[in-house]
Amino acid sequence: MALRKKIGLEGIRFFAFHGFYPEEQVLGNEFMVDIITEMQVVHDGNDELEDTVNYEKLYEIAESEMKNTRKLLETVALSIIERIKELFPDIDTIRVSIRKMRLPLSGEINNSLVEFNYTRT
């Protein structure tokens, strides 16, 4: 029987300066980031951190990319995925979503959302 595991972080809160409009890059905004990884379980009785996905490293990647101001959240999400792939090559799928909490729109809206799903082929 093949086992799969999911490891991730949900609801990571950041204040950052992403946005297409110049005022967004000056005023900043609150963002919520979710990172979910999935991979095959290979368990040989070893109980070591290097045999799994270290969620501390996932946080460090997200934090680093959120500090790098970009116009589009798509660019941020894709950069997070690329760095996770490099660090954890055995991961089969990665889902990264970023929500912008305050939008420059007049309607009642909870947040905007950008989400990418990577599947290793």
From TrEMBL:
MF terms (GO), sorted A to Z: dihydroneopterin aldolase activity
GO cellular component, one term: cytoplasm
Source superkingdom: Bacteria
Dihydroneopterin aldolase/epimerase domain boundaries: 7-118
Keywords in alphabetical order: Folate biosynthesis, Lyase
Catalyzed chemical reaction(s): 7,8-dihydroneopterin = 6-hydroxymethyl-7,8-dihydropterin + glycolaldehyde
Name of this chain's protein: 7,8-dihydroneopterin aldolase
Organism, scientific name: Pararcticibacter amylolyticus
